């Protein structure tokens, strides 16, 4: 069976290669910082499952140290110029899209085939990770096609990957770090304390105010945690279930489903949701780290109002 | 009162982001402040932090697409994406992103959340296409406008994903809602929950879609001036 572990080995190999080529890149004044950072990630992907929790913790602290003290630079491996790229784009034409489409198409068609044909019973892939594994397979296929068709220098994919990776820099591990922070918050009982506070400010007998506090609580807590998943159990336990469902007799399915979506409006407005908001700003080379969030606020706020209205008008009929 | 001490980690995060300190440092500091105030010792916090980091490695697996994307960019993929849009009559940034929004919502609603995303589709295809389309109607973009067009491309991907995925019955958030209500004695099926994601999905399409088309009009107006 192909498991998530296989993908981790693939990712480990990619980061190991980034690390080695970083170390050899004399154009980058901070090359050993980059080599150490990507190298530690390679160690995490290869051996993270075998290391003790404490050793993994030390590994994280080393990553933070390298990034926090500005030891990460940006490699600039040789590549084609913009003018050359226009020429190549004309030469290869729209066929250039095909390898790029191999990745999403493999993930899309593969998932559908796997879920709706007898293939799914074969146990070929680890159930929970089918699409992600297929994404990995798509990457390998696309890479093979590119190497055969475009005949680039052998190291070109690693060098180009390293260029993009360096441009993202420390932001690449921020989403994973925030997930880890969420785990520590959960251990310390941060959610319960916030739930208690929210639970004490509800006036009696007013459905609308209760719905409002439930939804705004989801948004605020999601913005703090960067993730609606962390907020939902807390707000459901503090207000959703005891006040809205038990107290006012609301429909639990509506209160649950739309309450979660109110939280998603918060995800659109917080830098803590780094993989959705901060990483793309780095990927697109935006000058303003919050450039993506600023474009989302105009959608998030009216949509939040819709969610509040939907809960109020649908759940208490 | 002492319960409230564990909230100091939140203050660290808010202050750290406001002071624009390196976010990795801020997050780590917040984790240690919270853990220590909750009565854990240094080794326990380090271990909890390390374990959670390790359990969440799947989040960072997506970077394996970068070598392919980088290689195709070396051979002119972004330029090709621009040329394609320049050749289509009537293609505007707003309409292009509107179609992408619909595509993202529908595929996410079918459970196909990883088929698109910021590294896979936004950087190599959607963002350069949106920029080319905006330049068609507006002429050369200023820096501030260019940032907005690129930011809107990423924003459209997020909106499409968030407000499509919950229509799919087997997505993590639906299972979480089901689990939470189940522990309080309310038995809900995933389907019961996912149908109630549809009204919000429609609202999201209307709200974000109209913003995209309005953005188009603003760009065109700016060009005439």
Structural features, described:
The complex is a heterodimer of chains A (317) and B (225). With 317 residues, chain A is mostly helical. Chain A contains 14 helices and no strands. Chain A is globular. Chain B is globular. With 225 residues, chain B is mainly α. Chains A and B meet through helix 1, helix 2, helix 3, helix 4 and helix 5 of A and helix 1, helix 2, helix 3, helix 4 and helix 5 of B.
Question: Features of this protein?
Answer:
heterodimer; A: 317 residues; mainly alpha; 14 helices; 74% helix; 0% strand; globular; B: 225 residues; 11 helices
Q: Which band does the percent of strand residues of chain B land in?
A: under 5%
Low-confidence stretches of chain B: none
- Tell me, what's the shape of chain A? globular
Q: Please state the average pLDDT score of chain A.
A: 90
Taken from the alpha-carbon principal axes, the silhouette of chain B is: globular
Profile the largest sheet of chain B. Answer: none
Assembly form of the protein: heterodimer
Estimate the mean pLDDT confidence of chain B.
Answer: 88
Q: Which helices and strands, and how do they pair?
A:
The complex is a heterodimer of chains A (317) and B (225).
Chain A: H1 4-23, H2 31-47, H3 53-68, H4 82-92, H5 97-116, H6 130-150, H7 156-168, H8 174-188, H9 190-200, H10 207-225, H11 228-247, H12 252-267, H13 274-283, H14 291-314
Helix pairs in contact in A: 1-2, 1-7, 2-3, 5-6, 9-11, 10-11, 10-12, 10-14, 11-12, 12-14
Chain B: H1 8-18, H2 23-37, H3 42-55, H4 66-74, H5 77-86, H6 93-109, H7 118-138, H8 143-165, H9 172-183, H10 190-195, H11 198-224
Helix pairs in contact in B: 1-2, 2-3, 5-7, 6-7, 6-8, 6-11, 7-8, 8-11
Concise structural overview:
Chain A has 317 residues and is mainly α.
